[in-house]
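Tutorial, part two.
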Amino acid sequence: MDAAVLETRGLHKAFGALVVARDINFTLGAGARHAIIGPNGAGKTTFVNLITGALSPDQGQVLLGGQDITALAQAARVKRGIARTFQINTLFGGLTVLENLYLAVSERMGVAGSMFRPAGSRPDVIAEAGRLLDMLKLGRDARTTIAELPYGRQRLVEIAIALALQPKVLLLDEPAAGVPSAESHILLDAIAALPADVAVLIIEHDMDVVFRFAESITVLVNGGVLTTGAPDEIADNAEVRAVYLGEAAHG
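Running the prediction step on this input gives:
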């Protein structure tokens, strides 16, 4: 594995008697394509919230590039190189795709105050936004408002905005949620085209998406790591199958 860009050591979180993260030790290599899976209530989103600073652990550490960031706020972690998308998109529906990207790039460059001036007065921001539009194949949608876009393309805009932050680690929380299965290839193609040095970690319920995307998979159960391995190892793991069959039987 490449050198670790993200690491958690003994990460533990409980709400009273309910343990939602159980001594999680996890390593994400530079440029990794890694998936987190597990049954409902396994602690997947909680784990991402601990990585991003939305939650603080009771015990343990989060390290980015070998530096302890456990005490840093969410905004500080973003500036250090962690970007995230959410299960439900958080885009500005009344603004165009280009305007959403312009805002994100401006914020990263520290020139958001210049938004009171005409957009054309910041050619560097426009150029960066244009590069992201091209990367995610969103050029034809540049002048379309978010509210007018199909949901699958809104998810692509979310990824573009996350990339505008120039992250070292990109966390995608259920990127295929709400996207018709026939359109999931759009997201997968976009992820495949991401820069090779960006480590990507996805939480996903759609196993087809997981096995087409991931080079390695971690399975969480009851807030702890059950196992980590290559996709074929996970597919052949009897414990993993039992967990999912058990969930189906009780679903």
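DSSP finds nine helices and ten strands in the chain. In part three we will examine how such features are distributed along the chain.
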